[in-house]
Amino acid sequence: MFDVGIGEAAVLVVLAVIIFGPDQLPKVAAQAGRALRQLRTMANSAKADLRDGLGPEFADFDIADLNPRRFVTKHLLDDMDDVDVREAAEDEPFLPYGERPPYDPEAT
């Protein structure tokens, strides 16, 4: 989820100690943990409310499917699993370098 390396984590810890001080840091960490837990609970309850509101016909609905990248992958690219792109490219010959494609006056 987060791409934080060891060096970056150490810098964040040092900054937290400098900003909050060693005596306040445990309190701030506990508050941040409670806030994160509350946000996660609110998000899960909102998902459950949405599923309940949609009814049984949307029982297999996944909210993550609304992500544009996942939507395109699921609805457009999953159907292309049986198509081999290399075979399709070999069927049509490539033009040699510098050669122009044939001109079609009806297409323009």
UniProtKB/TrEMBL annotation:
Region (Disordered): 89-108
InterPro entries named among the record's database cross-references: TatA/B/E (IPR003369)
Main localization (coarse): membrane
Keywords: Membrane, Protein transport, Translocation, Transmembrane, Transmembrane helix, Transport
Compartments, record wording: Membrane
Membrane topology reported for the UniProt record: Single-pass membrane protein
Superkingdom in the source lineage: Bacteria
Alphabetized NCBIfam families for the sequence: PRK01371.1-4
Name used for this protein in its record: Translocase
Taxonomic source organism: Actinoallomurus vinaceus
